[in-house]
Amino acid sequence: MPTISDVAKLAGVSTYTVSAVLNHSAKVSPELTGRVLKAVNELDYTINYVARSLQTRKTETIGMLVPDLGNPAHSQVLKGVEDVCRERRYSLFLGSTHNRLDDLHNGLNVYRAKQVDGILLFRAGDEAPLEALRQKKIPVVCLDRRPGTFDGDYVIADRHLAARIATGHLASKGHRAIAILSTGAEAIEGWRAGLDERSLAAAGEFALEVEPGAESAYRAASRLLSLAQPPSAILAANAAMVAGVLRAARERSLKVPEQLEIMSASDSEWLDALEPPISAVCQSRYEMGAEAARLLFRRIAEPGRAFEHIVLPVSLKIR
User: Fold this and answer.
1) How far is CA 34 from the centre of its chain?
2) What is the value of pTM for the model shown?
3) Is residue 125 exposed (0-12), middle (13-18) or buried (19+ Cβ within 10 Å)?
4) Helix/strand/coil for 191
5) Do 76 and 106 contact (CB within 8 A), yes or no?
């Protein structure tokens, strides 16, 4: 296996110059850069990242755990993270928790064993792993939900505002029986605020906190639509959950939106393809991922800096 010394010898430069070219750590003339890269290609040389990490105490990797890799909203967050990692020349390890605590713990254990420089985590209900990461001095940034008792860095969309303006929009169209399928209490509080602004009662049976995903939304929507006085509109937390609500409505031969209006608290490109159109609240999922990655890199560079709490704005998208 060729070494950095072999590359330097073939290119007629020092090992420092080879390192500077490959690590982009210093300016090197185009002529020397070309010679180094030509030697690298001829020798089929690759950087020994394990050896380098022993010297720098950094692996130039970060780990990320998402609840569901099949969720379109998560894919946009991932794209934002990937783009920032690419700018920093970092590699990204990716795993799914499947909304299960044991998978969360297993994923974090894998990342600790790989000695990643930091972790991006969609917050789960159990905050003990976050405290464990802090004790191990592993930088972590939470996404999508505000941590409960754990004080640390996070990047979230304003779920309260998203639910409030969506509820207000539905009420402005004449709906008085508006239900919400939420993945957290913050959105339900926003739903209550939106109803209160319109002097509408918040029926307790119309507010359901469920697991994210189409199947859980289908079961919850079926329960709502089976009530003696069902809602005339349902606000779903995301586009995947909209699919579950649509399935429940079609099973009952309900016309959308004439007999049941559906809205998403988080926009997705594929909502444009639905007929009838589904209005939504725009949350910049890409920017959430990119901002979380930038925040993690700031934390890696300055471990002792004050925690940052970033709340991204939202807006209404009428279809």
Assistant:
1) 39
2) 0.76
3) exposed
4) helix
5) no
